[in-house]
Give the backbone structure.
Amino acid sequence: MTKLTYSQALTEIEKIVQIIESQEVDVDDLTDKVKRASELIIFCRNKLRGTEEEINKLFDEKGLKAE
């Protein structure tokens, strides 16, 4: 199983949004789509926070100030 990347998660979120906006999703599948989108959003948020923390740590180690 391949590890999910930020780009893959974002692409999947965009596809889910397109499906929902086009009203092509069956009502029975809507809950699953929204649940999956929520999981992906949390994944992306955590990935961004982790990246920000890593960058700040690197800046701190180099004596630079992150903006």
